[in-house]
């Protein structure tokens, strides 16, 4: 009869004879306290320099750092970006490359100017408020901007280091370094010399608040309430007499552009109607019976509803082509306050972009305020007026409105059109509208003289860029289409900005012919000065004479004072970070958020293709944005912001890093208290795996290693699993696609190891003799597991991996980060064995399920109290012997049978022909290993032990 009561005891305590785990590696990570110590140790032993020296002969791996902006502390998006970069760099290093990572910062531009100007305006600031930025000497202002950027660069550097990000922090780059500024100016010079740089008047996105042009990447869209109007342009000339006197009606959401109107556009194949007003809705004082309008037939209904037409008749329908050659009067022609400034004719021009989706099917053309308007007007020789000043107010080229701000112009424009009898409708709509992402204020399109880089001249930047995109590896691949469509459709690149803090477009323009001076000698003088003194040299008194030299009179030349777009600056970093440091170009990888398809990836591509003829990267990886746990955008006002500094203080950087690597970074990520707590639990399981390994490797020596041929199948299966994970990790290191890798490692630790292999081999490791082949085999596998897991975890969990490595291999200057990924023997790979053991583990579920049912019923307390019967199909009986099944199922015995199982047997759906009949184990429980065996009690010397444990104890006593 089975019983837990041991045979008569000699009362000896055998606990000291068991090989219990021993390790200094604590169960609790205590990461917030321990991690700073590891950082200090790595600094002390010069880890970064030692890695560089150790891998000097290896092939370089270059992940070129897209520079974060030196403006404020880090947010969670910064942490995501740098952690992902660090994992990829560390993995490349451990996979056999030389990953020399140069972190950098973007230091110029409007956001920093804005902060410095805020200090000027702040009544409680150091200037006590009231300082006009324009009255501050430019060199003094630039010095304040430089100091502001330097402060935040240092803050961010320490915060990145706290996240465990490894890099050449001492040799970091910054766009405001003198050498960087010189290189940026030299890159501009390349476009000057190859002819792609030109100055032209055309519409650009303009911020009236910041008084500068903006790049597409500096614009975001928000709902905005805009005024609208319908107005008629009286036809004064047309091929058909019945059209003369009728009013061609347009609709616009920018009433302020009416003074800048110079043409109208129609669709040649659109059906237009000549409509007569027969009646107006009550209270409508804008439209008069008898007025005749021209508009698209498809939009008559919407127009009538919007402007309040009670009754109308249509004289005829005609194709837009009939409007060819027609002229209209500007609706403000004859307006007294306009002082005759609107007396010109307005031509009607065919435009292939005109549709009937909204409005009237006729488009008013203001060439200074729209890209399509500009191109259509230029194609027909129409001049481009400059009606709006840099602050958003009307100039003298908008007579009658001078000094009025365009965002307050709708009322005056409505009034003027009403006075002239041409306003047909007015109102407001709320729609998505572009805003500056810095000031959060709406922007406008405004034609101003700017410096551009041509996309389609002899340099063929667009065509070459599209070819480079086709040859680039994208992770994920949909990034290819996104950046490709942007490059295909973009206009010429506006690179000039009307600000003070940045690298000047350091060129001269000949006042006699308006042509930029193309002289390499002058550019070389500028380069030498910038390298010695920084770009401030451009603003020093006498700079023009200094750079032009004795052979030219500075009075004959305009010194350009615009600065270059910061996207050009960051786009040219490859020139002074990679090439000047001897790193290979193109870089292996650029890695940033998905918004950088229109930002840094885009500008880097155009800049490198334009100056070198090829892309600066071989591959592009993009990640998503970070949202809160419910999928909302983070906002201080919502109180849902997760700051990386707070996470490291509460949990440690390794938890934040684990969150990154457990997420699908190609999509938007979520984070919050619940998610971080979940990551902490996942981390605990990984740490416990490492601790168990270390505890059971105590005293392990190389001589204990067992050859593969002498190992049981269970150990060989674990080694095979290591080869599968090794292939997965090496593929991720090569492809930069880490999605799912660390969840797979966690699953291996939790499911394959802790819940299976460790549970099974615990008995052998604790209770077998030290010389036992089974125990030696297990410890050999544990050695391989420790070496593999510490190396594989090192890229993602650098602090924990270091602690687990040094807990086993203590050293004053050693480090897991000086190791490579272990090279695993090819013979460990055994796909046939893996297939067999997949079957074995499925069968095991039928046994463990029966045991769990007995445990739940109170029949047993532990699986070692059981000795079930396992019924298998005849062909499965030879899979494993009964004693091995007992080991795997952690029972004290097990009987195999191919006889039909009774109806009461335990089964699992989907595993036909397999069943378990539960039975308790006969005999007594061994005091040392706790197995229940009939042999317990048969030893006179050790009556409470089984034969195995008796032999081990006797051997230890003899020793």
TrEMBL record:
The Zinc finger FPG/IleRS-type domain is annotated at 923-951
Q: Domain Aminoacyl-tRNA synthetase class Ia spans what residues?
A: 38-671
What does the entry list as the binding residues for ATP?
Answer: 636
Cofactor binding remark: Binds 1 zinc ion per subunit.
Q: Domain named Methionyl/Valyl/Leucyl/Isoleucyl-tRNA synthetase anticodon-binding: which ranges?
A: 715-865
Instruction: List keywords of the entry alphabetically.
Output: Aminoacyl-tRNA synthetase, ATP-binding, Cytoplasm, Ligase, Metal-binding, Nucleotide-binding, Protein biosynthesis, Zinc
Coiled-coil intervals in this record? none
Known EC number: 6.1.1.5
Q: Which CDD domains does the record associate with it?
A: Anticodon_Ia_Ile_BEm (cd07960)
Q: Which major enzyme category is it? A: ligase
- The record lists L-isoleucyl-5'-AMP as bound by 592
Subunit structure, as described in the record: Monomer.
Q: What is this protein called?
A: Isoleucine--tRNA ligase
The gene for this chain is ileS
């Amino acid at each position: 009869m089975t019983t837990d009561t041991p045979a008569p005891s000699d009362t000896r305590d055998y606990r000291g004879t068991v090989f219990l785990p021993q390790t200094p590696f604590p169960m609790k990570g205590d990461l917030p306290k321990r991690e700073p110590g590891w950082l200090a140790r790595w600094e002390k032993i010069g880890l970064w320099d030692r890695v560089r020296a150790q891998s000097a002969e290896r092939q370089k791996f270059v992940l070129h750092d897209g520079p974060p902006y030196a403006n404020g502390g880090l947010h969670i998006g910064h942490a995501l970006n740098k952690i992902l970069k660090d994992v990829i760099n560390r993995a490349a290093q451990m996979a056999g490359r030389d990953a020399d990572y140069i972190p950098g910062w973007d230091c110029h531009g409007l956001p920093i100017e804005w902060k410095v100007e805020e200090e000027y305006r702040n009544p409680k600031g150091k200037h006590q408020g009231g300082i006009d930025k324009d009255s501050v000497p430019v060199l003094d202002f630039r010095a304040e901007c430089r100091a502001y950027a330097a402060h935040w660069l240092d803050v961010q550097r320490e915060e990145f280091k706290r996240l465990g990000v490894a890099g050449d922090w001492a040799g970091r780059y910054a766009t405001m370094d003198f050498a960087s500024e010189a290189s940026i100016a030299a890159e501009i010079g390349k476009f000057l010399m190859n002819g792609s740089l030109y100055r032209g008047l055309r519409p650009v996105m303009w911020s009236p608040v910041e008084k500068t042009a903006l790049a597409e990447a500096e614009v975001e869209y928000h709902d905005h309430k805009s005024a609208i109007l319908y107005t008629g342009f009286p036809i004064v000339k047309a091929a058909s007499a019945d059209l003369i006197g009728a009013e061609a009606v347009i609709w616009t959401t920018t009433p302020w552009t009416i003074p800048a109107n110079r043409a109208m556009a129609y669709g040649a194949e659109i059906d237009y109607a000549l409509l007569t007003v027969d009646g107006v809705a009550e209270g409508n004082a804008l439209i008069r019976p008898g007025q005749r309008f021209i508009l698209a037939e498809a939009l008559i209904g919407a127009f009538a509803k919007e402007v309040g037409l009670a009754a109308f008749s249509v004289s005829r329908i005609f194709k837009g082509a009939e409007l060819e050659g027609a002229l209209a009067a500007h609706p403000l022609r004859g307006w007294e306050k306009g002082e005759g400034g609107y007396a010109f004719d307005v031509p009607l021009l065919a435009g292939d972009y005109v549709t009937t989706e909204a409005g009237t099917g006729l488009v008013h053309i203001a060439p200074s305020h729209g890209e399509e308007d500009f191109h259509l007007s230029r194609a027909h020789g129409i001049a481009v007026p400059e009606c709006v000043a840099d602050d958003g107010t009307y100039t003298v080229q908008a007579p009658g409105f001078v000094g009025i701000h365009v965002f307050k112009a709708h009322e005056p424009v409505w009034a003027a059109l009403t006075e002239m009898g041409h306003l047909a409708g007015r109102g407001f709509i709320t729609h998505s509208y572009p805003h500056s992402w810095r000031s959060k204020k709406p922007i406008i399109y405004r034609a101003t003289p700017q410096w551009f880089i041509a996309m389609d001249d002899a340099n063929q930047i667009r065509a070459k860029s599209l070819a480079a995109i086709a040859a680039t590896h994208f992770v994920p691949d949909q990034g290819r289409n996104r950046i490709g469509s942007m490059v295909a459709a973009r206009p010429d690149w506006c690179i000039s900005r009307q600000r003070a803090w940045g690298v000047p477009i350091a060129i001269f323009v000949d006042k006699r012919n308006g042509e930029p001076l193309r002289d390499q000698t002058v550019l070389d003088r500028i380069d030498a000065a910038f390298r010695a003194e920084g770009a401030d040299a451009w603003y020093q008194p006498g700079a023009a004479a200094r750079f032009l030299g004795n052979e030219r009179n500075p009075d004959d030349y305009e010194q350009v004072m615009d600065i270059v777009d910061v996207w050009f600056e960051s786009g040219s970093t490859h020139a002074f970070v990679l090439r000047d440091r001897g790193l290979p170009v193109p870089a292996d990888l650029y890695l940033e958020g998905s918004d950088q398809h229109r930002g840094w990836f885009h500008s880097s591509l155009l800049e490198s293709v334009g100056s070198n003829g090829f892309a600066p990267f071989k591959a592009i990886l993009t990640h998503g944005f970070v949202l809160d746990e419910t999928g909302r955008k983070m906002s201080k006002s919502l109180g849902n912001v997760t700051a990386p500094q707070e996470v490291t203080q509460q949990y440690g950087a390794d938890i934040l890093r684990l969150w990154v690597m457990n997420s699908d970074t190609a999509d938007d990520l979520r984070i919050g208290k619940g998610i971080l707590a979940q990551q902490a639990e996942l981390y605990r399981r990984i740490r416990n795996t490492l601790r168990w390994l270390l505890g059971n490797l105590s005293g392990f020596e190389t001589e204990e290693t067992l050859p593969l041929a002498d190992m049981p199948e269970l150990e060989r299966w674990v080694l095979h699993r290591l080869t599968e994970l090794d292939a997965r990790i090496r593929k991720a290191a090569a492809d930069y696609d880490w999605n799912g890798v660390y969840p797979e490692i966690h699953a291996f630790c939790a499911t394959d190891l802790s819940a299976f292999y460790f549970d099974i081999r615990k008995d052998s490791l604790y209770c077998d003799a030290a010389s036992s082949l089974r125990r030696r085999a297990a410890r050999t596998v544990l050695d391989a597991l420790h070496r593999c897991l510490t190396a594989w975890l090192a890229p993602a969990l650098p602090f924990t991996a270091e602690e687990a490595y040094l807990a086993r291999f203590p050293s004053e200057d050693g480090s897991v980060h000086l190791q490579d990924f272990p090279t695993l023997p090819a013979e460990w790979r055994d796909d046939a064995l893996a297939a067999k053991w997949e079957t074995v583990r499925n069968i095991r579920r039928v046994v463990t399920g029966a045991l769990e049912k007995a445990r739940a019923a109170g029949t047993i307390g532990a699986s070692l109290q059981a000795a079930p019967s396992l019924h298998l199909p005849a062909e499965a009986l030879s899979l494993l012997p009964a004693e091995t099944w007992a080991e795997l199922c952690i029972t004290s015995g097990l009987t195999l049978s191919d006889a039909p199982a009774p109806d009461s047997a335990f089964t699992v759906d989907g595993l036909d022909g397999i069943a378990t009949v539960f039975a308790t184990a006969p005999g007594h429980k061994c005091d040392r290993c706790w197995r229940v065996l009939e042999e317990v009690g048969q030893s006179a010397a050790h009556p409470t032990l089984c034969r195995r444990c008796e032999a081990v104890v006797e051997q230890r006593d003899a020793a």
